[in-house]
Design a protein that fits this description.
Elements: H1 4-28, H2 32-35, E1 40-45, E2 51-55, H3 59-76, E3 86-89, H4 92-95, E4 101-109, E5 115-124, E6 150-156, E7 159-160, H5 162-169, H6 175-203, H7 205-228, E8 233-241, E9 252-260, E10 265-268, H8 284-299, E11 313-316, H9 335-339, H10 341-351, E12 366-372, E13 379-385, H11 415-421, E14 424-431, E15 447-453, E16 457-462, E17 482-485, E18 493-494, E19 498-502, E20 507-511, H12 526-535, H13 540-547, H14 560-568
Parallel strand pairs: 10-11
Antiparallel strand pairs: 1-2, 1-5, 3-4, 3-6, 4-5, 6-7, 8-9, 9-10, 12-13, 12-16, 14-15, 15-20, 16-19, 17-18, 17-20
Length: 574
């Protein structure tokens, strides 16, 4: 008979182990994308590869780690995974990510030698000889995207496999930082394995296995309780990425049919774009992972991630489509996995607008810079993601300037870090007034950050959705994302989805989208509009035009008669 108290103690011990893995990783990583932004996925898994504890990072990484470990078990066999072994997997179609998102995992053995689980860490390393430094935006097959490791030992029986590290060293533009980050992953999974082994030693292998099973059974029970509360039906939505990186004039369709029954939550991507040439195709593990993120946010948002949470979820894809890449389809620019989740929300908003927010700004809006730092003579590469506005919802306004929901737990790179580690100066950084869609509950505003380069550099604009963020229940669309190089100068040009050579004095402005509005804007409380103007989120002009709220000159008091007149006027005459 199960001891509920012991199970709960073990559960918290596993969560603590995962947290220690993340702390160890951030303490030892070379790459600011890891230790500042928290671009990682950490997991403690049972013997089947199912996650039983994680640490917050990029949510789609952690669920993708399950998929990758299971593929490695299938490829290598459990018997090949000995004590002290540590494996590297970055073959996209198995690992659930592109080549630079390396999954490092270790089998965990109890003191008696029994296999009791796995510890995993996935991060973004800087270079594995992909065809372009930094990031690949225009590959047309897998062979342009770097070196593949299909479950390769970095360590065997505790001894470093020098041959593998030498291959990496001689096939990386930034070998010290790449190998340093891989070793940080190794150190981190060792920490997770050690803590999990201590739990097995203290409570017994059988008790640990029983607790892991109970953890996932309880996770499934919670998910089914959450599923039962959702409206039932079938809804369809389609949205578009700007392009595939090759054909810049053709948007790429992400098409979701969502069906909720008493027993299942089904997401069908079968009608999404097929045969996409550029590198935005998703490995199937990442498609499952992004769907898992959406499903968890609706059913079990308040409990830690465990594999059981996803038992009612079923994902349908079409092999060869943008949502199910097969070899040798290119997969490097994985932005589809960051944007497709809101297509599911768009479908659900048709059937449950009181549950769903409007669209966020809609993208992760990443800027990456690289080159040679004249202060040190060394190669540099730094990146950061920018915050967006969230969509308004039935209970209130969207949040202003926070990380896109595909990357909960992540942060952006601070100004001080970017200016210290690279030849860039941040000219301005702040909220983007009037970017949130008007509504009874307005969309949150996005942000704008301007990077001025002080040495010859390459700027990579990772932004793939510049169409207006959609609204819900009669709200208005938000202002879309946009990335511009040298705005207002004769050489002004678009920077989104581009690989740009920049000279000293060039400026790249990353302006992120505001969320869509929820409900008719003229139903918004005039006092809330006045507060928005006072706080700099809405201009006086937009208050009058979009909300019908007129403020008295020189202050923030409402001109009630002018407001009443404006709101009562027929549309088109205001």
């Amino acid at each position: 008979m199960r001891d509920a108290i012991t199970i709960e103690v073990i559960r918290h011990g596993l969560i603590a182990a995962a947290a220690e893995v993340a702390h160890n990783l951030c303490r030892t990583a070379y790459n600011t994308v890891v230790y500042e932004i928290h671009d990682y996925g950490v997991g403690i898994h049972d013997v089947n590869g199912d996650v039983v504890a994680d640490a917050p990072g990029i949510a789609i990484f952690t669920r993708g780690n399950d998929y990758g470990i299971k593929k490695a078990i299938e490829f290598l066999g459990v018997d090949a995974m000995g004590e002290g072994d540590v494996f590297l997997l970055n073959y996209p179609y198995w690992s659930s990510a592109h080549t630079l998102d390396t999954l490092v995992f270790a089998p965990i053995h109890a003191s008696g030698g029994e296999l009791i689980g796995y510890a995993s860490v996935r991060i973004h390393v800087l270079d594995l000889m992909q065809k372009d430094a930094g990031y690949v935006l225009d590959s047309t097959d897998m062979y342009q995207e770097g070196i593949f490791f299909p479950g390769t030992r970095l360590y065997q029986a505790g001894r470093q496999c020098d041959d593998v590290f030498n291959i990496i060293r001689f096939n990386s533009r930034m070998p010290e930082r790449t190998i340093g980050d891989l070793q940080a992953q190794v150190s981190a999974v060792h920490a997770g394995a050690a803590r999990t082994r201590e739990i097995a030693d203290k409570y017994g292998v059988e008790a640990l296995a029983d607790a892991m099973q109970a953890i996932n059974e309880h996770g499934e029970k919670l998910a089914r309780i959450g599923l039962a509360k959702l409206p039932k039906g079938t809804w369809h939505a389609r949205d578009f990425m700007d392009s595939d990186g090759i054909d810049k004039s053709t948007p790429v369709a992400m098409d979701a049919v969502v069906t909720i029954t008493d027993d299942e939550f089904i997401i069908d991507w079968s009608d999404s774009a097929f045969g996409v040439v550029g590198p935005i195709n998703l490995p199937p593990g990442q498609t499952e992972a992004l769907c898992s993120l959406v499903f968890k946010s609706l059913t079990t948002p308040d409990s830690p991630v465990v594999a059981g949470n996803f038992a009612p979820l079923r994902v349908i894809t079409r092999e060869g489509s943008v949502m199910h890449a097969v070899p040798p389809m290119p997969t490097f620019t994985l932005w589809t996995g960051l944007l497709a989740g809101e297509v599911v929300l768009k479908a659900l908003a048709q059937g449950m607008p009181e549950w769903m927010p409007a669209s966020s700004g809609g993208d992760v809006n990443s800027m990456m810079g690289l080159g040679v730092n004249p202060r040190t003579g060394d190669s540099w590469l730094e990146a950061t993601n920018e915050a967006v506005g969230y969509g308004g919802h039935a209970d209130g306004d969207g949040e202003d300037g926070i990380m896109h929901f595909s990357e909960p737990g992540c942060r952006n790179n601070p100004v001080e870090v970017l200016e210290t580690k690279s030849p860039m100066i941040i000219d301005h950084y702040g909220y983007r007034p009037d970017s949130g869609g008007a509504g009874k509950h307005r969309g949150g505003v996005g942000v704008s950050r301007a990077y001025r380069f002080t040495a010859p550099s390459v700027g990579i604009g990772l932004m793939y959705k510049t169409s207006p963020p959609w609204a819900v229940a009669g709200g208005e669309e938000g202002v879309p994302n946009g990335m511009t190089i040298n705005p207002g100068r004769p050489d002004e040009r678009r920077g989104a989805g581009e690989y740009s050579h920049l000279e000293p004095g060039d400026v790249l402005v990353n302006a992120t989208g505001g969320g869509g509005g929820w409900g008719p804007a003229f139903e918004r409380d005039p006092l809330a509009v006045a507060a928005d103007v006072r706080n700099g989120f809405v201009s006086r002009e937009a208050a009058a035009e979009s909300y019908g709220v007129v403020l008295r000159p020189g202050g923030f008091d409402i001109d009630e008669s002018a407001t009443a007149e404006r709101r009562a006027a027929p549309a088109g005459t205001r």
